[in-house]
Amino acid sequence: MTVTESVRSALEQGKVESHLNPVGSFDVADHPVPTGREEIWRFTPLKRLRGLHGDAPFNRSTTSCTWTAPEGVRVEGVDVAAEPWMRGLAGWMPNTRFAARVMAEVPSSLLVDVPADLEVAEPIVISLKGEDATNTEAGHVAMRFGAHSKAIVVLNHEGSSSIAAVVEIAVGDGADVTVVSIQDWADDAVHLAHHQARVGRDASYKHAAISFGGDVVRMDANVTYDGPGGSAELLGLYFADAGQHIEHRLFADHNAPQTKSHVVYKGALQGEGAHTVWIGNVLIRKVAEGIETYEENRNLVLTDGCRADSVPNLEIETGEIAGAGHASTTARFDDEQLFYLQSRGISEAEAQRLVVHGFFNDLIRKVGVPSIEDRLLTTVEAELAKNVLKEIAG
């Protein structure tokens, strides 16, 4: 086991009790192989995960990993035996078998270490490119941001791979951190991921999950707080084509007073069998007085044969809060919007393109990384060209 006993003991005392987040454990034996009947797995097509949720071997990686390391930032592969503090860095215990296996079995981690008070001008970009979707593998990333530091990290996933991954993020007091994870895999890829962040006192944390490619992508994006005043913004954008399954699950655990969380996820679906899942959950503990939280999910269905599941949840243990709410919608194109545009001489194809861009535009701007914003606009255009515009033109 690579987790130190002191870390294990501290985490045991802070176990989460939530119907959507089973009690965690570092021991793999405490996590049976999912059957699909469990609440947290009932939407996921387990047969398409190539065993990553169960006992598929974590083989030697065929996914290349390169990165940029701005001056003053440490980015390198590290043997966990030499620096065991990296496991449990985010103050969390795995609540799935695959995450527990990653923590126990993967011998090394990719470390991103930003010292206190350092402001990094350019994004730290980590590029992962898969070469073999038949090879099941796993990885662990540890990100540590010192007090009052400021940085942006981009995880970029491309190519063909079958990978289980855990990303732990520790945001120091007063730090300002953005983590963007882009899943732009080839059509045969499978990506099973858990991102866990611990946000320090008066710190700001933004996480953006952007999923376009892959056969199956399932990502958890969770956050807890290490003191009052912390703020988390969880953003997501996804576009599912025929046969794709894209699933995002969020958990904001307000375990400290005067904390904030704001969740906005938007997705579009097109093509037969396209399936998206969004599960949002906010737990407001008894000690979390004065918190503010809001979560919303919007889905735009572009063609017949699609399915979007959207389930927002609030679990509230105290009435002393500043505000809490959620919203969820799934709808087709607004006929009135299309009619208005077409009545002014705009073609049906162009009208649909404008509506989709308008749907995503405000969220894309929230990402806050200009180069990524431009890329997302281009990718949305390319996704539309696959089905919607082609069908209209034909």
Give the topology, please.
Blueprint (H helix, E strand, L loop, with lengths): L4 H8 L50 E5 L6 E6 L17 H9 L2 E7 L9 E22 L4 E22 L4 E8 L6 E10 L4 E8 L4 E10 L5 E10 L4 E10 L5 E10 L5 E10 L7 E10 L5 E10 L6 E10 L2 H8 L5 H19 L3 H17 L1 H6 L1
Helix pairs in contact: 3-4, 4-5
Number of domains: 2
Number of helices: 6
Poorly predicted regions are 5-14
What is the beta-strand fraction? Answer: 35-45%
Number of β-strand runs: 16
Instruction: Specify the biggest β-sheet.
Output: 16 strands, mixed
Helix content: 10-25%
Distance between the termini: 58 Å
Judged by helices, strands and strand pairing, the structural class is alpha/beta
Overall 3D geometry? globular
Strand/helix succession = HEEHEEEEEEEEEEEEEEHHHH
Radius of gyration: 21 Å
Instruction: Round the mean pLDDT to the nearest integer and report it.
Output: 90
InterPro entries: Fe-S_cluster_assembly_SufBD, SUF_FeS_clus_asmbl_SufBD_core, SUF_FeS_clus_asmbl_SufBD_sf, SUF_FeS_clus_asmbl_SufD
Protein name: Fe-S cluster assembly protein SufD
GO biological process, one term: iron-sulfur cluster assembly
Family: Belongs to the iron-sulfur cluster assembly SufBD family.
